[in-house]
Amino acid sequence: MRAPAGWSKREGTLARALTLSGHGLHTGRRVNVRILPGDASSPRGIVFRRVQGGRVLAELAVSPALRHGQPLCTMLEAPGGIRVRTVEHLLASLLTCEIDRATVELDAEEVPILDGSAQPWLDAIRACGRIELPHAKRFIRVRRAVKIADGAGTRDERSISIEPSSVYEVAVRNDLKGFGELRWDGALTPASFAGEIAPARSYGRVKWAIPAILAGYVRGMPILRGARLSCTAAIFGNRVLGGMRVPDEFVRHRVLDLVGDMAMAGAPLLGRVNALRPSHEMNYRLVAELLATRDAWEWAEFTD
């Protein structure tokens, strides 16, 4: 079988360290991030490292096993309770920029939201450059279909599945009152992600934001405390304040989140993901079920 078009055959890492600062969407707190390149002897995958005052609090290797349920974002939690929140945009960016080994240091709990999209991460990663490592790049090849579904036959039906394919494909359907049914269907490659998915921002209705923030304070859970017009496609009535950045921005952002959540598997997929109204919870359940079903997937390398 040929290597999937558009992807490298060798693993890669950053050519130099990346530094970036911003505030968290949910905590609202300032955070400084430093992404350190890996090398041939580094563990495969992405590792988050929480630091404070020069001291390492915890290291969290990206894995569905560390995922902790949280509304409106994906969060990892170490056995000692140290957390890293809102990892999905950065994970999608590292995956599609083909940064296969790296350590992400941050001095607060939440990865910065930046402008609400993956574009600033892509720009920063590309500015650092990528160098190849001697290892063959690994893909997760899907061998048989896996599906997760809730509310079948109801108006609130949600489903997500993955089936065999020779390339990484994603098809997402979503609907939003006032905007109708939105769809994105295509092959996912570094180029298609950069051109069609990365610019899509987080979004939400203004009338829902304030009650959600207040409910978060009551429950002692940070929700949208850092939401601003600068980092969110804010919906007021049937329009987006300032307009959409790309066509069908809402469904493209769902694709962005899905790619980031599926990156918890540790490698790009060779499979087709079909999703109806996906959520972070549904995405997690799919990747966890896929990896737990050992005859549903295998590692694939293309070295020729």
UniProtKB/TrEMBL annotation:
Its EC number is 3.5.1.108. Pathway: Glycolipid biosynthesis; lipid IV(A) biosynthesis; lipid IV(A) from (3R)-3-hydroxytetradecanoyl-[acyl-carrier-protein] and UDP-N-acetyl-alpha-D-glucosamine: step 2/6. InterPro entries: Ribosomal_Su5_D2-typ_SF, UDP-acyl_GlcNac_deAcase, UDP-acyl_GlcNac_deAcase_C, UDP-acyl_N-AcGlcN_deAcase_N. One of its GO terms (molecular function) is metal ion binding. Its cofactor is Zn(2+). The keyword Cell membrane does not apply. GO terms for cellular component: membrane. Catalyzes the hydrolysis of UDP-3-O-myristoyl-N-acetylglucosamine to form UDP-3-O-myristoylglucosamine and acetate, the committed step in lipid A biosynthesis. This is UDP-3-O-acyl-N-acetylglucosamine deacetylase. The lineage of its organism: Bacteria, Pseudomonadati, Pseudomonadota, Betaproteobacteria, Burkholderiales. The gene is lpxC_2.
